[in-house]
Amino acid sequence: MGNPWEGADTLEVYQQRRTSGASEDLDAGIALLREVAAGRRSPTLRLYRPEPTVAFGQRDARLPGFPEAGGKVRAAGFEPVVRRAGGRAAAYHRGCLVVDHIEPASDPVAATRARFEFFGGLFARALRDAGVPAAVGEIPGEYCPGEFSVHGPAGGRGQVKLVGTAQRVVAGAWLFSSVLIVVDAAPLRAVLTDAYSALDLKWDPATAGAAEDLRPGIRVRDLEETVLGAYDRHVRLVPAPDL
């Protein structure tokens, strides 16, 4: 095992060009996790542009305002889903890039924190490679707060969150899922404002930004290329068979 996360030396890369829908894409990640855990699929890196989605955490779903939050999200044209990983509500759409990294492990829980730290750094480097200033760490008032969020300076608006990460583990495998916010942050800010208000959770809408706020003209496919380049420094990438 030669890479920093002590995983496989080869990843099968699936660049998904079509989505089946917000819930279906989320479920597909869990299905891949279970296939890898069962040994029916090789370690996999899946990249795709998601449909408009607000992914709520398990704690969000237990709050009194959750039904109202779901209604507001739908009214804004986003599909509300409840993810099986932790965290608070996060929003994404076709201007974002989702990266699902799935590998087998005899003890998938053991290196949970180390994976958060390493992959936060990997995505910050990928952003910098694309000309976007980025660093790792929670910023005050951010949505779906996390110690290893990736953020960058957006001029007079202060720091904005650029990448959110989450993990899911099952017996025999782990899934590390990351969302890179690339373009068109305004609808994400608006839907998160509605959702957090209904849930009665405090946050600072100014923390919701996109990579284009820091490097105008950047595209989702630009970041897809730099993410693959960042991985290529550590592991051999091969095309995956169709899912």
String of helices and strands: EHEEHHEEEHEEEEHHHE
Structural class: alpha/beta
Distance between the termini: 26 Å
CA radius of gyration: 17 Å
Based on CA inertia axes, which overall geometry fits? globular
Q: Calculate the mean pLDDT score and round it.
A: 95
Strand content: 25-35%
Largest sheet: 8 strands, mixed
Helix share bin: 25-40%
What is the number of helices?
7
Using DSSP, what is the number of strands?
A: 11
Ranges where pLDDT stays below 50 over 5 or more residues in a row are none
* Strand arrangement in the largest pleated sheet: 7-8-9-10-6-2-1-11
Quick description:
The protein has helices at 22-37, 58-61, 66-75, 112-129, 186-199, 211-214, 220-232, and strands at residues 10-16, 44-48, 53-56, 79-82, 90-92, 96-104, 135-136, 150-153, 159-170, 173-181, 236-239. The chain has 243 residues and is of the alpha/beta class.
Main traits of this protein?
globular; eight-stranded mixed beta sheet; 243 residues; alpha/beta; three-stranded mixed beta sheet; 7 helices
Secondary structure: elements and pairs:
Layout: E1 10-16, H1 22-37, E2 44-48, E3 53-56, H2 58-61, H3 66-75, E4 79-82, E5 90-92, E6 96-104, H4 112-129, E7 135-136, E8 150-153, E9 159-170, E10 173-181, H5 186-199, H6 211-214, H7 220-232, E11 236-239
Parallel strand pairs: 1-2, 1-11, 3-4
Antiparallel strand pairs: 2-6, 3-5, 6-10, 7-8, 8-9, 9-10
Helix pairs in contact: 3-5, 4-7
